[in-house]
Write the structure tokens for this entry.
Amino acid sequence: MAKIDVIMPQMGESIAEGTLSRWMKKVGDSVKRDEPIFEISTDKVDAEIPAPQAGILAEILVTEGQTVAIQTVVARIETDASAAAAAPAPVAPAPAPAAAPVAPKPAAAAVATLAPVASAPASPPPASPPPAPAGSETAEERLRRKSTPLVRKMAAEHNLDISTIQGSGIAGRVTKNDVLGFLETAPLPGSPAAALTAPLPSRPAGQPGRGATTLIEVPAPLVEPWPGDRVEPWSKIRKLTADHMIMSRRVSAHVNSLFEVDFTRVGQVRAARKKEYAERGVNLTFLAFIVKAVADNLRKHPVVNAAVMGDATVYRRDINIGIAVALDWGLIVPVIKRADELSLIGVARAINDLGERARTKKLTPDEVQRGTFTITNPGGFGSFAGTPIINQPQVAILGVGAIEKRPHVVTLPDGTDGLVIRTKGMLTMAYDHRVVDGADADKFLADLKSTLQNFPDSAA
């Protein structure tokens, strides 16, 4: 008999650790090769990790809720020696191709696809770099030793010195949550704690900053459970979502525009093509038409397909549309890459595929990164309209309300008005008023409305 190490996989080049959120097997259980045995959570994605080899789960070395560095041995599987010898060598994650830059930007982490869990005994995790002799370590070396590229990018965007932030990661590493927590709680020099706003410290010209003012958060009220209450700790994905939403409301100047759209034409095209698409294994929804129309119009309105980098605007070359998916355990936003290059059936197939794999925890880190515009669909639950929060670092998000039959006033040939039944729905866009003016947002929405109300047969 032989024992195979099961390791904490690296879920992306910038990911240094992961939280083991749930064991799906217990010690003594038999496991099949590639059968999911535990779940992990990172700051990018939740995922089920398969067994590298068939056998018996002999040891569990990392408990549920524990955060450990990548390559840490979390369990061991007992199997026969011949099977272990035939097991393939560990495969390193392959970085995704980098997009050509469209504007100067801070160093960002390359993204990587999900690598299979190593099926041979893993080498021990690399040791932390030894402390450099006093006075010999440069600022860049210190930042690289204590933080990931993602964290360094966040610090640059908010004009922060990472060395002043207490790290909660492995070996004192500063994590994304540490930066978010610092931004939430750190008072500005000379500002009274009770002040609602205060000026930011001055900074050299050309350096990125957070803007002219920042919000000082008021401490949340103390809440105590009463008899009969049920207290359920937040999952990692719920905590990260909460942090991200609070940060977004604080960073971006949110404004909303609402447009009512007549989807009758889309409904006609959908009815004519739905059976054909179903025969090809694709469910054709109203959302597919909206994503297609958004992708076709973003090229004409680049300020909506952008990001804020300090005191500059980054106009994205690629059009990568994120689709918010509501899960029982939280919210996740898989991304359709280069959506403007896809046909309607390609968009519909991507929505079906990403949504299903989000629900079954099969997404890779690359599939939830590099979004440039986000769409959320609360109308699927019956909501008339909503005012969503921008998905940072993007500058706009589109909310889709319920699409249903409603009375509509039309002018008859004799000049009188009459009522007809039309398929209608509300589109709401939240946008960052720092870079997107109301006129820009409304021109984009007007073009989007026109595309949907006159959807061409050729596009289907």
In short: The chain has three domains: 2-86, 96-109+141-217, 253-459. The longest strand covers residues 417-432.
